[in-house]
Known about the structure:
Blueprint: H1 2-22, H2 30-43, H3 46-51, H4 53-71, H5 77-164, E1 168-170, E2 173-178, H6 194-207, E3 213-218, H7 225-245, E4 253-259, H8 270-276, E5 278-283
Helix pairs in contact: 2-4, 2-5, 4-5
Amino acid sequence: MKFFSLKIPLLSIVVTALLIGCGGPPQNNPLLMEAENSYNQAENDSLVVLKAPVALKEAEEALEQSQQIWKEEGEDKATLVEHYAYIAQQKTKVARETAKLNAAQDEVEQAEAERKQVLIEARKAEAIAAERRAENALEQVKKERAEAEKARQEASELASRLSEMEARQSERGMVLTLGDVLFDFNSSNLKAGANKVVNELANFLKEYPQRSIQIEGFTDSVGSAEYNKNLSQRRADALQDALVNAGISSRRIETIGYGEEYPVATNMNEAGRQQNRRVEVIISNENGVVTQRTQ
Length: 295
C-alpha cells in the first residue's frame, strides 16, 4: 500500500508536466506575421488603396481567414493558417502590382487625354486663325470694292467735269484745247474773257490735287519759225502764271511751246490757221504723270 501511494503523486507530477509542455498554441506564426506586415504596409500605401481596392480587399479576406483559423483549435490548423497566410501575402503582392499597373494606365490615359486636348486646342486655334483670315479677306474685299466704287465715282465725276470743260480723250489722256478765247492774234496777253477758262481749270486742279497738267502752245505758220516758237512758249507761260495766281502750285504745271509744229489743220487758209493757233492742256493720270508727245 505504501508503494502504490508513492507512485500516484509521481504520476500526477509527470502528467502535469506533460500538460504544461504541450498545453495551448504557440504565441505566433512567422508566416502569418509576415502576411500581416505585408498587408499593413499595403493598407497604409495610398497608391494601393486608391488604385487597387478590390485586390487589397481580397488580400484582407484571405488574411482574416488565416487569423480566424489561428484562433481555433485543431490538429491541422497550422497547415491551414500558413496556406491562407501565403494566399494573403500573394494577394497583397497582386494588389501592389495592380496599383502600379493601374497608376501607369492612368498616366497613359492622362497623357492621351492631354494629347487630345492639345490637338483640340491646336485645331481650335487653327479654326480661329482661319476664321480671322476669312474675316480679313472679306474686309479686304469690302475695302477693294469700296475703293473701286470710289474710283469709279471719281472717274465719273472727272469725266463729267472734263466734259463740261469740253476736254477730249486722246492717247495721251484727256486734252483740253483752247483756241482764240485766250489770246488775240500775235499776242501772249490773256484776254479779259479768259478768266472764266482759268477759273474753271484752277477749280478742277483744286478738286483733283493728285493730278498735274502740261500746257502746250501752238501757232500758225505766219512769221518765222523761231518767232512762232517763242510766241507759243510765252502763251503757255501766261496761262501758267494765271493758274498760279489762282492758287495752283507751279510744281504741278509744265509748259512747252511748239510754235508751228503739229498743226491740226492746213495753214493755206484762215480757217485752218485759226485752228492751229491754240493752247492744249494735257491732264495727267492719277499719279501726276503726263505722257509726252510723240507726234
